[in-house]
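Re-running the complex after MR caught last week's input typo. The corrected sequence lines follow. Everything else is unchanged.
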Amino acid sequence: MYVKDGVKYFVVDGHTHFWDASPANWVAGQEEYAKGWIECFHAYQSLGPAETHWPIEKFQKYSEEQMMTDLFDEGHVDVAIFQPTNLRQWYTEGFNTTETNGALAERHPGKFVVNTNWDPRDGEEGLKALEERAKRWGCVGAKLYTAEWKGDSRGWSLKSPEAARYLEKCQELGIRNIHIHKGPTIWPLDKDAFDVSDVDHAATNFPELNFIVEHVGLPRIEDFCFMATQEPNVYAGLSVVVGGLMHARPRFFAKVMGELMFWLGEDRLVFGADYAIWEPKWQVEGFVDWQMPDGEEFSDYAKLSVTAKKKILGLNAAKLYDLKVPPECDVDAPEVEPVGVPAS
Amino acid sequence: MTSVTRTPDQAAAVLAAVWSALGAVLDPELDEPLTHLGFVSHCLVTEEGEVRVRLRLPTYFCAPNFAYLMVADSYDAVRAVPGVTSVSVKLEDHFAAASINDGVARRSGFVDSFPGEAVSELDDLRADFLRRAVLAGTDRVCRAMIAAGVDRFSLTDLTLGDAPEGADRERLRSRRRELGLPSGDSDPLVLDPATGEVVTDLRAHLGLARLTRVSQEANSGVCRGMLLGRYGVKEEQ
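Corrected-run output:
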């Protein structure tokens, strides 16, 4: 819980990882990709405040104790949601798996939500394994990475019939929150890998599932926002928006927040720190202190109310994941500040 | 091509012309010149007129299709500079660098550069991003006009020539021209970049234009920051 100016915020970090990208875990022959991946993540960290930067060795593999401290002792987080990314083609034991995350979560009851993941290219066996993981770890959410390499394949689409079978399976297993992370590759390579129209397709066909587009569809924020206006079950995951822009590019952070509030509104934005790329502490504190700047440049955008901040930092995710919110953190009284409607 | 030895001054003039040519090559996604973004890490012209260019991107995994367009466009731009006898453009520190560099050097096209991984050339991708550039450019031009007192609902009655002269207008005109859209001074200021038709729902159109510009500029901000994080250098101002 984070308390500022007498207001209590229930903080759900909607996007966290416990990864191992140390050289000992690199697959022989795939070292350049394993190294390239973690160095890319590390460069993202450079967009946060300098005092929060880690040396690459620590960044490749950090301890459980470090993570617990950074999230719960110092980072104001009440509950964190694990979003696994397997990458077994590059990392022997996987990069950040359901099993590793789940084992850590079991040692700290009540602190984590364990999501799993799936890949439609895994066929029948993958469906069975998904069911086993879902039951073993009690998963109600899944994280999908459509740009994952598998053999010669450079990615997949949510439009495929195979993906539809997995979504049906999710529905059957009670996995209701589908987080999607778009990456730079897909098959075929001539198409725009970041295209979000496949999420649109899936969200229309599976209205009972929630689709949380991580990193607000970056770099296709415009397509994402436009799609989200048409699909009520689509949410925005704010990881990278807060971590990558709030400190490094505050003007663009303000504009992106303004657009997200305009197109989606405060009930469909979900905070995520994207640990260990960025620590939650400075993000939570900075976001609570943040306000839409004055001036012509930002005049189309509404100010952000305390209620909106409460929802974005935790209450929206708590609703998606049925988390118990302490009454003092909830939104009780009607908010007096203006909300949501930009002047036009 | 013939090999001609030049004086250092002549070589410097070719270098300036090459740099200027590279300044016209855009990152299709960000709609900004590679030279502004800091993507040209190395540009060398020998006294024989041989040009060697090296490009770098914000991440090892930047999308290979956009990377290919930037390498191919750089190659074509430099090759067209008078006095250039041979060109080598190499993308560095990228997972697909070898395929892209070889493909561009052989002028074999995107599909042949990535056998089995691509089904068509990148014209549709490029056109899609040009349309986004037109939308973002519409916001740049129209927002300035509205701030200067132009009634926003009169924008549909105005022409490109009614917009204030300047870099923003010419940039918009140039993207429209490249898409084959009307781009003369007497053509409508606001049009649908997908069809070239006049816009009927101006409010929605301007909303989308603003959103597209915000997205493009936020992406540019992230890319610049990542390049700085990766190479520890600031882009050219």
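None of the earlier attempt is carried over here. Chain B has two domains: 8-113, 123-221. The mean pLDDT of chain B is 94.
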